[in-house]
């Protein structure tokens, strides 16, 4: 992930650093290249425009150009702007609510939603010592509830017993009742996905959200889908006001631009990063570390 972007940035910065003095047009040339590199990495156009404008505003000032090492200063400005675009500081899951705390997992089919639900359950169990209940509300795909049950077993987390014939809303309500009765800290509700955004999906998710009032509504998006990930995030955010994003397949070789666009486009922070198929392959999304990786 980010390899191409990182390679391009390192070329641009090498050239900047090699020059002792920088003119305004040197900086403008570099900015043009940065713009192209970001667009090529699938960063959404408005985000690229905003990014370049911010860097320009700071980098073209006389103070920077007359400084001892202007190239370094420009690199620092780009680094800070990248961190800001990626969301600034890491954003942990919100566990500050009375138990049982409902988390609603939303996203398209195949985004990694079910795997991520189990990963989060495992993470909360091992790192936060939380008692977690997993429940699949996916009555669309016949094997979905079984899949979550199997993943829960692997993670050694309890999953809500499957009762055939219940609607997603009924399952959500039963999960919350069970959690109250059996004193769970967190309930992770894995909703059904569709291959693409459709009205029925959004209406279902909206109804569940209204019924359980989740503390976190986490959108799971596949980083490999590039610009489509941004479209998906916009649609879900409009329908159910997401509180955070989990980007999956950041271990893959996608160009990575979606990770850079998410915060600006939705206003919601990317909280976690899926780094593989295994249940412990879930990392905190750390903007500073990612900016470091992009800039090398
Ligand atoms: P869902 O349809 O959204 O519930 O998607 P699943 O959880 O079934 O995941 C679909 C596939 O993606 C599975 O084979 C997962 O193992 C895989 N997957 C999920 N997250 C990641 C990730 O972060 N990295 C990689 N490489 N694979 C992932």
TrEMBL record:
Task performed by this protein: Involved in targeting and insertion of nascent membrane proteins into the cytoplasmic membrane. Binds to the hydrophobic signal sequence of the ribosome-nascent chain (RNC) as it emerges from the ribosomes. The SRP-RNC complex is then targeted to the cytoplasmic membrane where it interacts with the SRP receptor FtsY. Interaction with FtsY leads to the transfer of the RNC complex to the Sec translocase for insertion into the membrane, the hydrolysis of GTP by both Ffh and FtsY, and the dissociation of the SRP-FtsY complex into the individual components.
UniProt-annotated location(s): Cell inner membrane; Cytoplasm
GO BP: SRP-dependent cotranslational protein targeting to membrane
Class in the EC hierarchy, top level: hydrolase
Subunit text: Part of the signal recognition particle protein translocation system, which is composed of SRP and FtsY. SRP is a ribonucleoprotein composed of Ffh and a 4.5S RNA molecule.
Any single Gene Ontology cellular-component annotation: signal recognition particle
Keyword Hydrolase: yes
Free-text comment on this protein's domains from its UniProt entry: Composed of three domains: the N-terminal N domain, which is responsible for interactions with the ribosome, the central G domain, which binds GTP, and the C-terminal M domain, which binds the RNA and the signal sequence of the RNC.
GO molecular function list: 7S RNA binding; GTP binding; GTPase activity
Organism: Acidocella aromatica
Binding site for GTP: 107-114, 190-194, 248-251
SRP54-type proteins GTP-binding domain ranges (all copies): 269-282
Spans traversing the lipid bilayer: none
Main location: membrane
Record membrane topology: Peripheral membrane protein
Sequence similarity: Belongs to the GTP-binding SRP family. SRP54 subfamily.
Full-protein interval shown: 1 to 296 of 457
Protein name: Signal recognition particle protein
EC number: 3.6.5.4
């Amino acid at each position: 992930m980010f390899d191409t972007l990182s390679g391009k940035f390192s070329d641009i910065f090498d050239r900047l650093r090699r020059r002792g003095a920088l003119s305004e047009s040197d900086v403008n040339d570099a900015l043009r290249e940065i713009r192209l590199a970001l667009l090529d990495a699938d960063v959404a156009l408005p985000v690229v425009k905003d990014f370049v404008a911010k860097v320009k505003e700071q980098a073209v000032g006389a103070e920077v150009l007359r400084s001892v090492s202007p190239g370094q200063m420009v690199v620092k400005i780009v680094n800070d702007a990248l961190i800001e675009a990626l969301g600034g500081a890491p954003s942990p899951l919100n566990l500050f609510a009375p138990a049982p705390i409902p988390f609603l997992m939303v996203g398209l089919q195949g985004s990694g939603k079910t795997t991520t639900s189990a990963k989060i359950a495992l993470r909360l169990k091992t790192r936060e010592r939380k008692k977690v209940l997993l429940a699949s509300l996916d009555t669309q795909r016949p094997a979905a509830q079984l899949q979550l049950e199997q993943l829960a077993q692997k993670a050694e987390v309890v999953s809500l017993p499957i009762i055939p014939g219940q609607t997603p809303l009924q399952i959500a309500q039963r999960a919350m009742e069970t959690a109250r009765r059996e004193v769970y800290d967190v309930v992770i509700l894995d909703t059904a996905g569709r291959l693409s955004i459709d009205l029925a999906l959004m209406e279902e998710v909206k109804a569940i959200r209204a019924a359980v009032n989740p503390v976190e509504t986490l959108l799971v998006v596949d980083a490999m889908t590039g610009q489509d990930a941004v479209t998906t995030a916009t649609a879900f955010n409009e329908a159910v006001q997401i509180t955070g994003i989990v980007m999956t397949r950041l271990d893959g070789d996608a160009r990575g631009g979606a990770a850079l666009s998410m915060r600006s486009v939705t206003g919601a922070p990317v909280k976690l990063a899926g780094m593989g198929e295994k249940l412990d392959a879930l990392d905190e999304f750390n903007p500073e570390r990612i900016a470091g990786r992009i800039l090398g």
